[in-house]
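[step 3/7] inverse_fold.run input=structure_tokens len=240
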């Protein structure tokens, strides 16, 4: 297993990232999602709660330039399933599952973001808790090494994940111009049993200049009850 702390500290710009897994005590399904930004438009965001999930919102509406790829609902809940993504494909998955499509089938209608030359990957995850059992899956839709004429679709499924282990996927391998897309299987990382310790570790490990917002949720696998933490750089004094 890799250290998530070291993975984050050694990368100034992983972009947006999703962590799914199981707490070290085995009791909780764990999800984390963070966003970073290099432009004023990207950094001018906060996470706010919406129903059982969250959405992004402009911190200062007067500074908002183009909302198309930065305002969306990263987290939505449908029954015993929690969806986490880096874009409006959250809604695509939510609606697809409502039509009896699978996670993978729902994403067939989508591809990477139209923000050439980066062609930012769409990363997505889904968690399902039923009858005291927990499974999750992750997906990435990316261009073929920057060629927008070809979309590479990878889905990874993890049944009954072991305690203290999770998977980490992010949009960019590192900073660059253009930004290089994530490569390989989601990274295996360790997960703490304590939501506050895990949240603090992720937030403090993200690059200070580029980090924007963080969401962490621990869901009790036996009861379905959950705890949530949200950290916003613009509202840090009031959020953490």
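[step 3/7] decode complete -> sequence:
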């Amino acid at each position: 297993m890799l250290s998530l702390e070291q993975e984050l500290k050694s990368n100034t710009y992983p972009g947006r990232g999703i962590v799914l897994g199981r707490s070290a005590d085995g009791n909780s399904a764990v999800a984390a999602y963070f966003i970073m930004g290099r432009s004023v438009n990207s950094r001018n965001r906060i996470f706010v709660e919406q129903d059982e999930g969250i959405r992004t919102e402009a911190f200062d509406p007067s500074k908002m330039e183009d909302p198309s790829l930065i305002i969306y609902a990263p987290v939505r809940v449908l029954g015993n399933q929690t969806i986490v993504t880096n874009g409006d494909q959250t809604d695509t998955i939510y609606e697809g599952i409502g039509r009896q499509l699978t996670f993978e089938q729902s994403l067939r209608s989508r591809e990477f973001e139209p923000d050439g030359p980066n062609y930012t990957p769409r990363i997505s995850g889904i968690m399902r808790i039923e009858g005291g059992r927990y499974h999750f899956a992750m997906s990435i839709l990316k261009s073929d090494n920057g060629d927008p004429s070809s979309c590479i679709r990878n889905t990874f499924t993890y049944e009954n994940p072991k305690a203290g282990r999770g998977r980490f996927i992010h949009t960019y391998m590192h900073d660059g111009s253009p930004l290089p897309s994530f490569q390989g299987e989601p990274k295996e990382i360790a997960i703490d049993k304590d939501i506050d310790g895990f949240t603090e570790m992720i937030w403090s490990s993200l690059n200070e200049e580029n980090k924007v917002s963080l969401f962490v949720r621990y869901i009790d696998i036996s009861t379905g009850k959950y705890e949530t933490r949200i950290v916003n750089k613009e509202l840090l004094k009031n959020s953490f």
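[step 4/7] annotate
The chain has one domain: 4-239.
The chain has a mean pLDDT of 96.
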